[in-house]
Amino acid sequence: MKEIAAEKALEFVENGMILGLGSGSTVRIFVEKLGELVRKERLKVEVIPTSYDTEILAVKNGLKVSSLLEHPEPDLCVDGADQVDRKLNLIKGGGGALTREKIVAEASKKFYVVVDESKLVERLNMAIPVEILPFAYGFVERRLKELGYNCNLRTSVRKLGPVISDNGNYIADVEAKEVDVEKIERDFRVPGIIEHGVFPSEMVDLVIVGRRDGAEIIR
Ligand code: 5RP
Question: At which positions is substrate bound (predicted)?
């Protein structure tokens, strides 16, 4: 189903485009297919990856990597999500790349999200990934607790220590009693919080949902 969504997103790619590339397994499929398309059709596209993982994959698939310095306004950003609600608010950051993902999504003229149907939920309800400056962690945890949130530092699978983002920061998963997008935007304005994984619907142009019987586009 991820493949179906990724394939559909490819239909929006045009020659000469500057493409923002998100992170995660759905985007990985998109990047591989994009590489094939660019080779086959001899397209001239440049990509701006949002993680080292995506950057390496893009290079291996023959894509020309660029940056926001050269192209501060990419034409289209394609990214995955961990949860999507009916209004098209998202939670992202399962892979810890949320800050660069939010920057490139916001910078781009269009932001398209590719998900399999398991990501569609009635209400956002998962812990919110948050990138935190290590120096500020104790303070951020305390402040969030005062505001009613539970902050869990993400540790590596083998529990060898905190997960470190591509930007050198901690990632925490913050439990909220209710994911109220506007309240989160207000409450998470804490010094030391670099960015959080709630992407409000105003950022999202469309969501491509991969289903067994084809792709559904939600605007
Ligand atoms: C990474 C992300 C990913 O887009 C999100 O976790 C979805 O990943 P996948 O396509 O593997 O389900 O936000 O930080």
Answer: 23-26, 79-82, 92-95, 119
